[in-house]
Amino acid sequence: DIQMTQSPSSLSASIGDRVTITCRASQGITNDLGWFQHKPGKAPKRLIYTASSLESGVPSRFSGSGSGTEFTLTISSLQPEDSATYYCLQHNAYPLTFGGGTKVEIK
Amino acid sequence: QVQLQESGPGLVKPSQTLSLTCTVSGVSTSNGVDRWSWIRQPAGGGLEWIGQIEAVGATMYNPSLRSRVIISADTSKSQFSLNLSSVTGADTAVYYCARRGGTSGWSFDYWGQGTQVTVSS
Q: Which residues of chain A are at the B interface, by a Cβ-Cβ cutoff of 8 Å?
């Protein structure tokens, strides 16, 4: 299985801060990676697909980068509604695997 | 607008079979392009991919669950189903169905709202 190591597991930041979350794959996955935002009681929402493509309707403060084994989700200016848990997902090989999640809290 | 909705019992007894159905609207489950998955999240835990089915009936399962999982589809009803046998408390989780869009990057672009399943006697 491809292991997805996500860091940090949690962070606390202020409104307007730049936030960066990283996922590292145990082997190369080209750009077969998505990023999801998950709020309690709701379905996860895809933010980024193929590592760097912004989902339609998602604010432009979200961006993704990386290829191979290192990937980054960046929130350029943190907003109150961004409080959530974020997950990466690799779909390069079966079984599909998620990162462990990053809980983002607002200070 | 693509929509998915899970349905099924919220309580299952240990050793029995958990059965859930996902009803899809807004797209044909037999379009031959998309893949239909089940994903779960235990309380306080992360997301775990269970498996998927394609329109032609081909399935892929997570090896960690393969011996207990069957995913099937009824394209005439735009539904696909999950059967997980011999359940224990470790199978207590929120279960989601989701689409992997063949024309939208192959990760999960549409999800159901999720359904809580508790394994308890």
A: 1, 32-34, 36, 38, 42-46, 49-50, 53, 55, 87, 89, 91, 94-101
Give the pairing of strands B108-111 and B93-100: antiparallel
Considering chain A, what percentage of its residues have pLDDT values greater than 70? 100
- B39-77: pLDDT as tens digits: 999 998 999 999 999 978 899 999 999 999 999 999 899
Q: How far is CA A6 from CA A60, B63, B65, in A?
A: 22, 22, 23
Q: Which two tokens stand for residue B90?
A: 């470790």
Instruction: Provide the token pair at B37.
Output: 């998955």
| Of the candidates A75, A89, A79, the residue with the CA atom closest to the CA atom of residue A20 | A75
Chain B nearest-CA distance from A43, in A, is 5
| Model confidence pLDDT, tens digit, residues A28-45 | 999 999 999 999 999 999
Contact of A5 with A99, CB cutoff 8 Å = yes
Q: Tokens at residue A32, please?
A: 């077969």
Q: Do the beta carbons of residue B115 and residue B94 sit within 8 Å? A: yes
